[in-house]
Amino acid sequence: MNEELHSSANSAGTTSADEATEPCKSVLQKQGAYGKVPIHKHSKFGQLARISEVYALAKFVAKGQVADNMQNQIPYKDDDIKFCDDILGKVSRSFAAVIRQLPEGLCVEILVFYLVLRGLDTIEDDMEAFVGREKFKLDHLRNFYKTPFSQEGWSMDGVGQGDEKVLLQNFFKVVRVFKGLSLESQEIISDITQRMGEGMALFAGRNLTQGTHDIKDYNLYCHYVAGLVGEGLSRLFSSSSFESPEVTQSAKTLGNTMGLFLQKTNITRDYLEDLRDGRTFYPQEIWKRYSKTGDLSEFAESKYQENALQCLNHMVTDALGCVPECLKYMELLKNKQVFRFCAIPQVMAIATLADLYNNPKVFTGVVKIRKGLAVKLLNETQSEEALHKQFNHFARQILSSIPQGDQNSSKTKEICENIISLTNLKANLYGNSTEVQLLLSGTPIAIALAANWIGVFYASLLMVAFVLFIRMASLI
Prior knowledge:
Distance between the termini: 46 Å
CATH superfamily of the largest domain: Farnesyl Diphosphate Synthase
Order of helices and strands: EHEHHHHHHHEHHHHHHHHHHHEHHHHHH
Strand content: under 5%
Structural class: mainly alpha
Largest sheet: 2 strands, antiparallel
Strand order of the largest sheet: 1-3
CATH architecture of the largest domain: Orthogonal Bundle
Oligomer: single chain
Number of domains: 2
């Protein structure tokens, strides 16, 4: 890097605090290998063919669907909280929406928790700033829970790119909001940050060009970078009295699994990004079963596509193993806003896994789910019945996609059928989505008008075809 790595208690390198709030447009908006590999999006025709998703997109554009409770917070006029809210939307559009809809008394706590861990994650993810000075990176990871919080005006420059860099340059603002939280919230955030930093340092000091060692090692990494988040969130939910003590009691078990499910989905999707970044997490215990050359990078070559897909399907199947415990955790949540906060990332994850399964594009870029599908999931996931409907649907989609001869077919089939069994009852209670019901309610009028032109018999056939079409659209 041309810029010098700089950590200061008084300044942000050569950039003033005010200047740093505006990201430089010439740099990448995300760090690591993001932007260096192709993004595989679905075609516009594929999107337009799904009526329910198009409806969800139009509805979302017109008036949005997620409440923003951040501005209702008593201290929102504070410039530091405004900065935190603004940078949240820049470093994570997806999590910004679900954080902002949380109730007062929890919204700011989760906002700060996310930004603190995002700052830590930015240090871990930067593979250029510490070249030749790896020890400094490990020191920063291990001490991030205390150094920025004990030194007045602490900031860091030269680490991260785009908005993540801006976050670290202005981290003292996050610290000031942190110090306004309850002592219990501060203790929880500090504890999780310390343990996560220690775990990240363990893996950051290793050669991960060929992935983690085995599944146990893989699970341990996912625990440090995501399972601990699930634990910390569970403790914050209970300490704020929005959820029962039972949620905290499950923090290190079910809460941990919630995080593992999201992280395993990301790692499975980000094969090529991580490979280009020189640090991968596919466990050798899995990928070496399908390797011809003993090198993880071979899966990016088209001649090894069949083996690559076998490996990918194994990774997806491993991630799906988290679902039963995730569903158990979701049953514990009683607050509607907390439920949505947890549920939306979960349904996005299983939708992503369904898109990744047996998909060769994973090895040539980053696979993204349709925007319309993402918005539809965001809109609809407001109850346990809706959550179960989505898990049920995507488990069926994966089940129907299992290729003949896949080495993990029996295991994948077993897990999918278990998910379907666990979710069938509540999924059926949810029924059709609201927009599909609206479309169906207009069908008799349209058919009656059509009968005047084409006759009752053909109009009846048209009605049956239309109902079947709408029914299929609601399942896509």
